[in-house]
Amino acid sequence: LTLGDQSQAETIRKGERDLNDKLSSVWRLNSMGEMAATLAHELNQPLTAATVYLHAGQAELTRLGPPAEGPAKTIDLAKTQLLRAGDIIRRMREQVATGSRSFTEERASLIVLDLAPVFALTGQDTDTTIALDVEEDDDQVLADRIQIQQALANLVRNAVDAVIGREGARVTVTGRTLGADGYEIAVCDNGDGIPEDRIDSIFHPMATTKAGGMGLGLSVTRSIVESHGATLIVSRNSQGGATFSFRLPRPTESEI
Ligand code: ADP
């Protein structure tokens, strides 16, 4: 190993560390946004119900006779606080969802190929072949590079989890140019696939079949893909495993 090789290797390792750091901070932000969205959704109903009950209670009290001023005011205050709780959660959700996106013109193949060192490490650690098969021609897209890398890292992580420990465990990431229709990225594995009756629920936050799983990966991934004006599609591939794919738009396609 010459000195030049060494410093080159050093630079590459630093690049990998930087990318990993970026991915994990993006992951934290994204999962916070997803938790906030879930909370906003789940809490909305009880908060609304509590407000309605308080309102009904006030009306009942009024019917029983002229209400004492003190208790009526206290109930009003409680209602205001409930509304405020709802607003706080909604605002937090909006801030996290919109604050961290930046779309630029990118080469889709490079978005994928830059992750090769990350995938290589994952492959080694899990005894899984992670193959990249990416078309490099005609691959200009409009995308948030780090967000798409986050989405891909999530999909590959899931694919690896689905094949880990089996003979011939294999995950393939493909990139295909679709001409005017954009550029398609797919992650394909030879695991057991996803049962028909779970196809919808796997995208729900907190839906997980893994011990210690958070169940946020797919909901974050879907949010990222949808923020690009695309759809995250899941299907069963010819090996019986799962394929997740999405299509990135061309820079010239309508504004996101
Ligand atoms: P987590 O990985 O924390 O469980 P996800 O939202 O990423 O959360 O995935 C939700 C569930 O979807 C997983 O627990 C698993 O049951 C299923 N799943 C995701 N990807 C695959 C795949 N490639 N093959 C089979 N099942 C999958």
CATH 2nd-level architecture of the largest domain: 2-Layer Sandwich
Tell me the name of the CATH class of the largest domain: Alpha Beta
Order of the strands making up the biggest sheet: 2-4-5-7-6
Q: So how many helices?
A: 6
List how many beta strands DSSP finds: 7
- What does the average pLDDT come to? 89
The name of the CATH superfamily of the largest domain reads: Histidine kinase-like ATPase, C-terminal domain
Q: Bound small molecules, which ones?
A: adenosine-5'-diphosphate
Looking at the structure, the CATH topology of the largest domain is: Heat Shock Protein 90
Can you write the helix and strand succession as a string? HHEHHEEHEEHEE
Shape: elongated
Structural class: alpha+beta
Low-confidence stretches: none
Give me the Rg, rounded: 24 Å
* Strand coverage percent: 15-25%
Written overview of the protein:
By secondary structure, the protein is α+β, with helices and mostly antiparallel strands. It has 2 domains: 5-97, Signal transduction histidine kinase, dimerisation/phosphotransfer (DHp) domain (Helix Hairpins), CATH 1.10.287.130; 104-248, Histidine kinase-like ATPase, C-terminal domain (Heat Shock Protein 90, 2-Layer Sandwich). Helix content is 55%, strand content 16%. The protein is built from 6 helices and 7 strands; from the N terminus they run H-H-E-H-H-E-E-H-E-E-H-E-E. The chain has helices spanning 3-64, 69-99, 108-113, 116-126, 145-163, 217-227; strands at residues 104-107, 129-134, 140-143, 170-177, 183-189, 233-236, 242-248. A 5-stranded mixed β-sheet has the order 2-4-5-7-6. A two-stranded antiparallel sheet has the order 1-3. Strand 6 (233-236) and strand 7 (242-248) form a beta hairpin. The model has no long low-confidence stretch (mean pLDDT 89). The structure holds adenosine-5'-diphosphate (ADP). The site of adenosine-5'-diphosphate has 19 residues, from helix 5 and helix 6.
